[in-house]
Amino acid sequence: MTWKRLSILCATGIFVVYGGLVASLFYFFRGGVFHDALLSERTWFAIRLSLTAATAATLLSVLVGVPAAYALSRHEFPGKAAIDTMLELPMIVSPAAIGAMLLIFFNTPAGQWLQGWGLQFVFSPGGVILAQFVITAGVATRLIKAALDEIPRRYEEVARTMGASPAIAFARITLPLCRRGILAAAVLTWAKAVGEFGATITLAGTMAYRTETLPIAIFMQLSTANIEGTVSLILILTTLGFATLFAVRILSGGRRDA
Amino acid sequence: MLEVRNLSVAVGRFLLDDINLAVPSAGCHAIVGTTGSGKTLLLESIIGFRRPSRGSILLDGRDITGLPVEARGISYVPQDLALFPHLTVRENILFGAKVRGISDSGHAELVERLVESVSIGNLLNRSVANLSGGERQRVALVRAVATGNRFLLLDEPFSALHEGLRRELLFVLKELQKSHGLTVLIVTHDTEEAFFLSDTMSVLLAGVVRQNGTARQIYERPASHAVASYFGIRNLFPGTVSSVTDREIMVSCPLLGTALKLRNSAGLYSSLLPGTSCTLGIRPENVMILKPGMESKSRDNILQGTVARLFMRGASHCIIFAPDSNGPSVEIDVPDYAFRKLGIVEEVPITVFLKAESLFFINESIQAQ
Fold first, then answer.
1. Least CB–CB distance from A164: residue in B76, B99, B149
2. Which regions of B41-89 does DSSP assign to beta strands (E)?
3. Exposure string for A88-102, b = 16+ CB within 10 A, e = fewer
4. What does the alpha-carbon distance between residue B170 and residue B276 come to, in Å, rounded to a whole number?
5. Which of B24, B88, B211, B220 could form a disulfide with B203 if both were Cys (CB 3.0 to 4.6 A apart)?
6. What is the ipTM metric for this complex?
7. CB pair distance less than 8 Å for B95 and A172
């Protein structure tokens, strides 16, 4: 077997595994149950919370991630290697562990001091956003840094010789040049946040109409052995996920500026 | 005037050491040197991208060493030009004015004159991504000058261009410099480009300025073996000073089997003592071949020998001359028309004349400026 055939076989194999999993859902698919799930107020709450929390977490991740990624991409400073490594923490440690770490933090004096100021995250909708932000911030920073690394710093340097301050040079030159990369990073971050389960359930719990996101709703349906209901919610989540990936494909497939 | 005083910059293990140079107002100074000699590092330090560990940079007497890049008033054209790819030609050219909030008619007139002088009026609304190499160079030059800065630094801006376009743009740059009174500092490894553009020059080798001077001084009198070798001069003959007068020096060159006379220009070497070891050199294009039967007015500096090898170089021919003394061969560069007139072929005996005015003297203990 040639290397070309082997590589195509592996790619096809991955597609068969994932495609087979999605296809297997239809064995338990019931139109009526799907219809009921779509019309269910609880499902719509879970969808709304998932979308709202994921959007808020993504905005926060990008807002922090852009300057953080810029520092890592353009500057040398003490502790840079440590920060760069720490970005991988949510990927190295399981999401459930991250959620547990958040819970533990809010039981330390520092965490309790924060809660004393009205910042309530444990078993609250705010906890959903915080859990998703902590899980996605590292990934978002990493993806944005990759986009920034592709833009030669020479552009900013020349802009500065023309009178632009570092912030103006970044805003007028680098940011427009890597906007597609940042947008793609934001979409992927959002998709990861929508599907986040482990940290969210650990920190925010499973309260219906309060902290129940779509992945948590799927878990709740499965825990009551309601397979048809589980399938319906998985299909809704899968549709949301594929729509996001389609958006990424369109964005990254467009004309590159740099 | 742009002055660099005792500038030292360290990057990793590389050190740019104690650099001194001065670019007169409205003049052009070239920094030449081998790859990795620190030319770009020096330029980046002057612009402000690198922080020097020692020394100062002055513009018209004002110390700018501690100023941020945007406050220095130095325009810059890097090797890759760095035209902003998301902007049109017009937006690139006007970027400096826009960020500085300049919108007066004087600046608009300057831009109009610049655009007209380099013939890019038809490109203004084009994306820079669709420009040819030559068009990109012109836009980069205009953009740099349109900032209104009088100091322009260029880092090998023409190195990626073919010969014809490069020559054309050298004239464009020279014209821009003269017409706008720009003080230009250009970094290049192309010696022809450096001599064409510059009034003064520095030879930077391994992080150290080995020679500063006017282009003419550096062309005629390389101060050291390293500088002479950088310019590709292989005609270097070791010798010993036999006599020194106010007008001339006699140097005995045993390998060539003769003594050579050279001018003691302005009494520069009057303090030399007979017996001093030295090296004499001559550029290959300055070696004269005497036609058969033709006698030199001078009886000095005549070498007899044969043509060992011939190489065509295009506009000129390289002749490797083997002296009868069995000493080191002499490289001679002869223009094509002269070569054809002389009818030189390999292995024929010829007579060469090393003009006293063309010989240069290297004594590493004396740094001729």
1. B99
2. 54-59, 62-63, 74-77
3. eebeeeebeebbbeb
4. 43
5. B211
6. 0.83
7. yes
- Is pLDDT of B295 > 80? no
Contact (Cβ atoms closer than 8 angstroms) between residue B353 and residue B300:
no
Q: Are residues B138 and B248 in the same domain?
A: no
Chain B nearest-CA distance from A33, in A, is 51
Q: How far apart are CA B143 and CA B126, in angstroms?
A: 15
HEC assignment per residue over B263-328: ECHHHCCCCCCCCCEEEEECCHHHEEEECCCCCCCCCCCEEEEEEEEEEECCCEEEEEEEECCCCC
Measure the CA–CA gap between B235 and A251, rounded to whole angstroms. 62
Residue A196 lies in a domain: yes
Cβ <8 Å between A157 and B72: no
Helix (H) or strand (E) holding B106: helix B105-117
Query: What average pLDDT does this structure show over B75-79?
Result: 93
Q: Contacts of residue B144 in chain A, CB cutoff 8 Å?
A: 161
Q: Which domain holds residue B326?
A: 227-362
| pLDDT per residue as tens digits for the range A117-176 | 888 899 999 999 999 999 999 999 999 999 999 999 999 999 999 999 999 999 999 999
Let me know if residue B117 belongs to a domain.
yes
Q: Which of B69, B80, B86 sits opposite A160 (nearest CB)?
A: B69
Distance from CA of B155 to the nearest CA of A (A): 12
Residue A221 predicted with pLDDT over 90: yes
Q: Do residues B212 and B265 share a domain?
A: no
Among residues 34-63 of chain B, which lie with CB inside 8 Å of chain A?
Answer: 47-49
B17: tokens are: 């050491």
Q: What amino acid is encoded at A67 in this protein? A: P
Per-residue model confidence (pLDDT) at position A257: 41
The CATH number for B131's domain is: 3.40.50.300
Token pair belonging to B199 = 């009034």
A-proximal residues of B, 144-163, CB under 8 Å? 144, 147, 149
Testing the interface with A: which of B69, B88, B92, B156 to mutate, by most A Cβ within 10 A?
B69
SS3 content of chain B, % helix, strand, coil (to 5): 30, 35, 35
Q: Any chain A CB within 8 A of the CB of B11?
A: no
Total domains in chain B come to: 2
Asked if A163 lies within 8 A of B70 by C-beta distance, the reply is yes
Q: Where are the alpha helices (DSSP H) in chain A?
A: 3-25, 31-39, 41-74, 80-86, 89-92, 95-105, 109-116, 125-149, 154-161, 166-169, 175-177, 179-194, 198-204, 214-223, 227-253
Closest CB to B85 among A162, A168, A258 = A258
Same domain, B166 and B260: no
Judge whether B34 and B189 are in contact, CB under 8 Å. yes
